[in-house]
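Fold this sequence, please.
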Amino acid sequence: MIVSAHWEKQGIRRQLDTAIHGLQWQPEALVVTDFSEPCLLEIVFDAPLTAFQNHAYRWEDLPQQHPVYCGLMVPKVMRLANGQLIQATIQGGHWELHARYPNRLRWWFYPEKAQVLTRYTGRHHERQLESVAGVASLPALPGLLFCSQFVSWSRASIPFAATACFTDHCDFDTPENLETQRKFLQECGIRVTKGMFLHHFSKRENNASWERDAALLQAWANDGHELAYHSLTQSIRDKEAAFTEFETTMPPVPMPTWIDHGYQPYNVSLYANEGKGNSWLGQQLSVKKIVNLWNYVDCGTATKGVLNQLNPQHFTLKAFHKGNQSLGFTKRLSLLIKEILFHYYAQESLIRHYKSLASQFKAVVFRRQWRQFPEFVQKMVGLIGPLSKVLFKWRSRAHESFPLARYQTLFFEYTFDSYPVSIFQTVEMVDFERALCASNIDDLVADSGVFIAHTYFSVPMAYHTGRLLLNDQTVHPKVRVNFEYLGAKIREQAVWNPTLDEWMAYVKGFTKTVLTCDASGHCVVLCDGQLNYRITTS
């Protein structure tokens, strides 16, 4: 059934034995540690592949236009033209499938942009996306089962439910709107991971913090929410004071999740730029028992038709533009331009150029600072090239999945020195009117989909359409309807609503599953990673 098999690493290509033993193929000349760095298994079959199990556990034909990738939390099951089922023995790595090469399976381990950390470098904190390889060994050697059944792994502790997880950034939280948010979520029956500032050092006098508002924040914990670090303070102290504060601060309550904020020098995204090493950060995280980290990685922006992080086709320019059709032309165009620069290109130079242009625009249009008009025009011209490359080839470019969405990476395991942590990736969610509309929630349920939202519940700026709060006391009525609908789906158990730490504790099981099959082709689960699963006969 296998015509050829090769393993490739750092430009070296090695031929592998194609023999199948007991309905199972493995690269027996290799060991698990051979897959700890970027590498590729390429397998060619004697019959073409005709279908695969997609992100929604449905059979789908091989894609014609762009390759599809099946990541850690997506089924690795396919069918040959002769009806033979094939399933991976482990969930690690990314399958690449394409109709142009119907007999070929490419199994990537740590491809570029599949696992990234944000690094801010230099004096101006230029953002770099660093691709990182694995730190944890695979649970077994990767292999293929030629079986008569296949196993589907549930992504939720409620078997095959959708997952809705919120990680909220507290930049604009005040004592008053904290209570408005908490009572509203309590009414809807929705739990979140709530970022908070431990200490009050802020450019905003009324910012909420544990130092001043511990009772209000403890009420969140009492309601079942998870409290998380949003760094330690809103504003930035001088470096010596900031590092001293970070090293001496201990959590007042269990706080396993850290969400980077601003350009704090001790952040996961900045510590290396300040001359600190992995052993220093690992020690600090260990002492504070921090095990989940977020550092500025969003796969895209949620809107109508754009929500499920396991569906790369949600994160295309076509889907994003279509989801904003009801907005006015100017608003729609500005959002599209931002999405092109931030998520289609995801290049720091273009993002910085856009931010500078936006600042110039406000200075010229709103503050009438006409002296800045020539520089504004110059910066605007600088973006014409990259925008034109997309807009003039819209029919092809609009369907390409964004780089940080392509591999469906919602989390990966990493170590700072020898201290293990989990890095999670989010979808930016600002417009709750569109992102959490009933049709989006229904589609999420139908696909057993997942979103880990990066939110700002208390953002006050009027230009943020679909924001949660109209003011510190009032929830947007249309947004309320959406949250109530989501709450109903949670009560029906169609949606699992974990905190981030609860979600992470469950889904890490995907890194541990191991399958084999018996002589009859029946699947045998050697390790289930404490995941829910079902076995389907072809």
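The mean pLDDT is 93. The CA atoms of residues 91 and 228 lie 29 Å apart.
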